[in-house]
Specification:
This protein is about 30% helix and about 20% strand. It is built from 11 helices and 12 strands. A hairpin with a 2-residue loop joins strand 6 (about 175-180) and strand 7 (about 180-185). Helix 5 (about 85-95) packs antiparallel against helix 8 (about 160-170), helix 9 packs antiparallel against helix 10 (about 280-295) and helix 10 packs antiparallel against helix 11 (about 305-329).
Length: about 325
C-alpha cells in the first residue's frame, strides 16, 4: 500500500479546505481501504469525515426522510421510521454485505462504491476505469455478472449498491457540499453510465462531499427483491425495487428500479410508462418488463440476465398487486 497522509476534518468546510488533488474522503472505508490494499486506489491523503455532524436520521413534518451521510447501514436498517414507513429501503440495506460490514459502512460511502468487476480490482490487468484507454478485457473475458443495460465499449461493470437501487425507486436525492456551496442532486443524476469516461462513477466534482440523502414519502405497497448466487453475502445478479399503486384494478402509479444490470441503479422509466393507467394484470406486467428490457445488449455469457430480470419484474409486480388487493378487502 502506498504511504499516505491522514487528516481528520472537524466540519464540512474544514473537509473541503483539507481536500486537494489526490485526496479521498474516508468514512467507513469498507470499499476504499479494500481498493487501497489491492493497489487500485492510491490516494496521497485521506481526509477522515467520520466525526462530522452527519450521523442522524430525521423525519420532516411532510414525511420526508433525511439521512445523514455518516449514518451506518446497520443504523439505517434498524431505525423504526425506516422500518415502518420505508420498509423497501430497510430490506435493501439488509440485503447488502454482512452484518459486520453494515456496522461500519456509511450511507454516503455506500453510494460511492466503485463498480464491481474483477478486472478493475486486479491492478495487473488493463482496465479503462483504472487506466483510461487501456481497454476493457471484460467484454471478451469474464463478464457473467456484468451489465446488460447502458454499458459501452469502454466498460461493462455494474454498480453494486442494494441501497441505491431502493433509493432510485423512491425518487431520493443527494445533498452535496462543494467549492461553490451546497446543492441537491437527484439520485438519477448522481451516478452515471460509463460512456467514454468509465473512470467517473458519479457526477461529483473533485472535493465534493456528500452530506445527506433525502427520501420523499412513498404511500403505496413496495418491495425489494434480490437474486444472487448464494443466500449469504453476495452481489446481485439482478435486483428490483418496486412500488405499485393499484385502484379498482388499474395501476395509478408505479416505481421500478433495477440493480445488477448497469453501471448505475437503473430506473425503469419505460416499464413505468407502460404500467400507469393500464390494467394490473400479468399481461401488463410482462409488457412493461419487455418494454424496459428491449434496450438490453447482453454479452456472450450474461444473456441469462434478460429473462431473469423479466421474471423478477413480473413476479414482484404481481405480488404487489395482490398486496394492494388484500389490503382493500
Amino acid at each position: 500500500m502506498r504511504p499516505f497522509a491522514y487528516e481528520r476534518a472537524t466540519s464540512a468546510e474544514d473537509a473541503l479546505a483539507r481536500h486537494e488533488d489526490g485526496a479521498r474522503y474516508l468514512g467507513g472505508g469498507t470499499n476504499l481501504v479494500d481498493l487501497m490494499r489491492l493497489g487500485v486506489e492510491e490516494p496521497a491523503k485521506l481526509v477522515d469525515v467520520t466525526g462530522l455532524a452527519h450521523d442522524r436520521i430525521e423525519r420532516t413534518p411532510d414525511g420526508t426522510l433525511v439521512v445523514g451521510a455518516a449514518v451506518t447501514n446497520s443504523d439505517l436498517a434498524a431505525d423504526r421510521t425506516v422500518r415502518e414507513e420505508f420498509p423497501m429501503l430497510a430490506k435493501a440495506v439488509l440485503a447488502g454485505a454482512s452484518g459486520q460490514l453494515r456496522n461500519l459502512a456509511t450511507v454516503g460511502g455506500n453510494l460511492l462504491q466503485r463498480t464491481r468487476c474483477s478486472y478493475f480490482q486486479d491492478a495487473s490487468k488493463p482496465c479503462n476505469k483504472r487506466n483510461p484507454g487501456s481497454g476493457c478485457p471484460a467484454r471478451d473475458g469474464e463478464h457473467r455478472n456484468l451489465a446488460i443495460l447502458g454499458h459501452s465499449d469502454a466498460c461493462v461493470a455494474t454498480q453494486p449498491s442494494d441501497m441505491a437501487v431502493a433509493l432510485a425507486a423512491l425518487g431520493a436525492s443527494v445533498r452535496v457540499v462543494g467549492r461553490d456551496g451546497e446543492r441537491t442532486v437527484p439520485l438519477g443524476g448522481f451516478h452515471r453510465l460509463p460512456g467514454d469516461e468509465p473512470q467517473r462513477d458519479t457526477t461529483l466534482e473533485p472535493g465534493d462531499l456528500v452530506t445527506a440523502v433525502v427520501v420523499p414519502p412513498l404511500r403505496m405497497p413496495a418491495a425489494y427483491r434480490k437474486v444472487r448466487e448464494r443466500a449469504s453475502f453476495a452481489f446481485a445478479l439482478v435486483s428490483i425495487a418496486a412500488a405499485l399503486d393499484v385502484r379498482d384494478g388499474t395501476v395509478r402509479d408505479a416505481r421500478l428500479a433495477l440493480g445488477g444490470v448497469a453501471h448505475k441503479p437503473w430506473r425503469a422509466g419505460n416499464a413505468e410508462d407502460v404500467l400507469r393507467g393500464a390494467p394490473a394484470t400479468e399481461e401488463t406486467f410482462t409488457r412493461a418488463a419487455d418494454a424496459e428490457l428491449a434496450a438490453a445488449e447482453p454479452l456472450r455469457d450474461n444473456a441469462y440476465k434478460v429473462p431473469l430480470a423479466r421474471n423478477l419484474i413480473v413476479r414482484t409486480l404481481a405480488e404487489l398487486g395482490e398486496t394492494e388487493l388484500g389490503e382493500r378487502t
